[in-house]
Amino acid sequence: xxxxxxxxxxxxxxxxxxxxxxxxxxxxxxxxxxxxxxxxxxxxxxxxxxxxxxxxxxxxxxxxxxxxxxxxxxxxxxxxxxxxxxxxxxxxxxxxxxxxxxxxxxxxxxxxxxxxxxxxxxxxxxxxxxxxxxxxxxxxxxxxxxxxxxxxxxxxxxxxxxxxxxxxxxxxxxxxxxxxxxxxxxxxxxxxxxxxxxxxxxxxxxxxxxxxxxxxxxxxxxxxxxxxxxxxxxxxxxxxxxxxxxxx
Amino acid sequence: xxxxxxxxxxxxxxxxxxxxxxxxxxxxxxxxxxxxxxxxxxxxxxxxxxxxxxxxxxxxxxxxxxxxxxxxxxxxxxxxx
Lengths: 248, 81
Description:
Largest sheet of chain B: 5 strands, antiparallel
Order of helices and strands of chain A: HHEEEEEHEEHHHEHHEEHHH
Oligomer: heterodimer
Distance between the termini of chain B: 57 Å
Number of helices of chain B: 1
Number of domains of chain A: 2
Structural class of chain B: alpha+beta
Number of helices of chain A: 11
Shape of chain A: globular
Mean pLDDT of chain A: 88
CATH superfamily of the largest domain in chain A: Jelly Rolls
Radius of gyration of chain B: 14 Å
CATH architecture of the largest domain in chain A: Sandwich
Strand order of the largest sheet of chain A: 2-6-4-5
Strand content of chain B: 35-45%
CATH topology of the largest domain in chain A: Jelly Rolls
């Protein structure tokens, strides 16, 4: 799929879309359109990061591997962010693995070109640093949420975030994957999903989830969903081009 | 790959969830460890109910429907009056 077939088409990554037009124009030759394939590893823990990804569709999980073999999602990046944050902050690798959890497309930039652009373009550096603060705040919020909120609230929050990012209504998901993302037993997901389904908020069948009562699901979620939404609006400001890309 | 499929039925008074897909564990002992962890995770939601008597039960069956074990978490408050 050609993502830049017209010189003035707005990029679907919301950070790039928030850049001043002249800065975006200078970046374009350094951005390569790539697919994000399911379970593709974009960067491995401890290994040098060679490229920055600006997701356009789909999303990427940041996974922490524990010594006992457990895998937990500690952050997720969609079209509101970048994969490769350590490069921005002066390091060259990450503790977590970046793995594509929902396939889609991204714009990829070489790490060296990214560093050069950060040095050269204040608006680019400033926007990306604010994005880093946003990602940091998400992880902080998730740490608090994981420590306190119940599985059904956390599941409702996660499903709302996934729904926001998914194109079309339903999205593919298994209880195993949800258990990994929320750091709970798979059977705990089965119980929480049954609760949400009994309340008429979601419909889950053969690995696909559909949100059937969105306001109800927002009420069932912990406050962390609303906090994250408002933080994202704050990050991207009231840029009219960015607003037109907002998912519903 | 070693292991068999085990099926959960979780009750809390009424039925909370029945897993039709099942989950693979190396053996009954591994399934037991999972059930114990599951109940401790579910215990976190008990305070929200405000009930003095709470009981969550996880029944685990094999592929033939035979009951392998029942794990129960009880949390009771007895007032002294």
